[in-house]
């Protein structure tokens, strides 16, 4: 004999007061991030939310990056998310980083291919991984450095995207060392000229305008 349908009235159903806001914020985050796999991304979202970690959420909706040589799924917005999640540590564990990468619905094989550019065993300096990610976005060293400046800057979006010269020089040396077509001498001449320009302002910061103007002169 079938059981009778259970009847509920509004007074019997308890809705946690925080639930509507949680679902609202989740929906807005999903729309802004546009994950390739909503279920996979949702698992990462609520896992981060429950543990108090930075959420895997983009700052805004973004268009696909046209400069990528192949469609890796990686965007500047997703690199920003990883930066928020990992930049509090100088070195990051590769297993943890691969997990975060996967929760952003990015192909694991692309993560491993990225690490082949500078193989390491258990951990990697975060700024170096970020630099490798920026190089995957762009087809040139200049484009990679542009992405890096835009991710690291504290300037408002659309501003000069300034970062400390020492950070810029460290990453530029690192990426240029991975490019067999760029000599150490060429790198040092360029950075020396750039440093002279930065020091004339006495703030130790370099912006995109400094970077690209000097590149055109050389």
What does this structure look like?
The chain has ten helices and four strands. The chain has a domain at 138-218. The longest helix is centred in the last third of the chain and has 16 residues, at 184-199. It has helices at residues 19-33, 38-51, 76-86, 94-103, 108-115, 126-137, 141-152, 165-177, 184-199, 208-217; strands at residues 91-93, 123-125, 163-164, 205-206. It is elongated, with a radius of gyration of 22 Å. The protein has a two-stranded antiparallel sheet. A two-stranded antiparallel sheet has the order 3-4. It is mainly alpha-helical and 218 residues long.
Average of pLDDT:
87
**Tally of helical runs:** 10
Please bin the fraction of helical residues: 55-70%
Shape type: elongated
Q: Rg from C-alpha positions?
A: 22 Å
CA-to-CA gap between the ends? 87 Å
- Low-confidence segments, given as residue ranges, are 65-70
Strand order within the widest sheet? 1-2
Query: Helix/strand/pairing class, anyone?
Result: mainly alpha
Fraction of residues in β-strands: under 5%
Number of strands: 4
Largest sheet: 2 strands, antiparallel
Write the layout of secondary structure elements.
Blueprint: H1 19-33, H2 38-51, H3 76-86, E1 91-93, H4 94-103, H5 108-115, E2 123-125, H6 126-137, H7 141-152, E3 163-164, H8 165-177, H9 184-199, E4 205-206, H10 208-217
Antiparallel strand pairs: 1-2, 3-4
């Amino acid at each position: 004999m079938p059981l009778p349908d259970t009847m509920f009235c509004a007074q019997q159903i308890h809705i946690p007061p925080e639930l509507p806001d949680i679902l609202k914020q989740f929906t807005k985050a999903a729309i802004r991030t546009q994950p390739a796999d909503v279920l996979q991304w949702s698992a990462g979202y609520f896992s981060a939310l429950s543990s108090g970690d930075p959420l895997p959420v983009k700052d805004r909706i973004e268009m696909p990056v046209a400069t990528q040589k192949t469609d890796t799924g990686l965007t500047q917005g997703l690199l920003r998310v990883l930066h928020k999640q990992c930049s509090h540590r100088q070195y990051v564990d590769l297993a943890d980083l691969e997990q975060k990468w996967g929760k952003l619905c990015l192909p694991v094989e692309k993560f491993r291919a990225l690490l082949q550019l500078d193989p390491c065993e258990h951990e990697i300096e975060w700024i170096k991984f970020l630099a490798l990610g920026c190089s995957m976005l762009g087809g040139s060293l200049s484009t990679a450095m542009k992405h890096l400046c835009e991710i690291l800057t504290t300037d408002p979006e659309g501003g000069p995207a300034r970062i400390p010269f020492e950070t810029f020089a460290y990453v530029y040396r690192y990426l240029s060392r991975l490019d067999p077509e760029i000599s150490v001498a060429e790198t040092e001449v360029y950075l020396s000229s750039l440093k002279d320009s930065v020091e004339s302002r006495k703030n130790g910061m370099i912006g995109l305008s400094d970077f690209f103007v000097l590149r055109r002169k050389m």
